[in-house]
Amino acid sequence: MTFKTYTNTPFFTEDYKKVRDFLIRVNRDRILNPRMLWGAWEWAVTHGGRDQENLDKIGLWEDGDKLVGVAMYECPLGEAYIIVDEAYPQLKAEAINYAKTALQKDGQLKLIIPDYDTDYARAARDLGFRPTPRRDVSCTLDIDALQDYSLPTGFHFTSLAENWNWYQYNRVMRRGFRPTEEYLYTDEIIAERKQMLSSPMIIPEIVIAVVAPDGNYVSHCGMWYRSGDFYCYVEPVATDSDFRKKGLGKAAVLEGIRRSGKLGAKQAIVGSEQQFYFNIGFYPTHYLTHWELN
Question: Which of 101, 127, 153 is at the close of a domain?
């Protein structure tokens, strides 16, 4: 058993591939940590808000050439996800202890661990963490029970596989997540948007946008699927604030899921407990608690 830190080089390195393949392997039969599936890792690796200066604080444990444990953050330093191969339970406490020091920011660390695993809970408690009322919920949708959906007259779907308009993509993301801010489209911002959809694991046909009659993208659903997986992963979803309550977000999400189902997915997973997802057929399946240093 050996320990090393992740490379300080961002994006698509050998360490990136090693972590990606590890997350695929340990979640092949059942979900260990739904907040850090390989799709979430892909989205984090290219995210414009990710701390790219502290990547070498991510910890990796290997048994020979086989990666068996990771202590990582998603976007900002100061949070930690611990994922350990089930055959190596002794690593859980060690990985939490490493994260306690290496992944802090300004003396603070939020540890996000699944409620079902009491080994994590006991190790976190013994290392000075305390659970908080804050929780993450991941939800599942069964693709064989997909609801009917349709778009209003004049609206249509497009995808990253077609004539994707990066300015429109930036527009819907801005108007979906930051509707009160001025809409900007500098060359730097467009380059960042392209970076965020540059993963080699993307299947362009399942990355969806809803196009309004005037040509504007008014809803978007990112989708992650890999042949052989039983699930697809929804991330991110955005709808223009002027076009909500029209069924556009529902249609975008369900269209991406439908296309993933045609490729072999049986379920869709989303890391959210918004009523929107419950209304379109998702149900809660995984609970994670935020632990903080005492």
Answer: 127
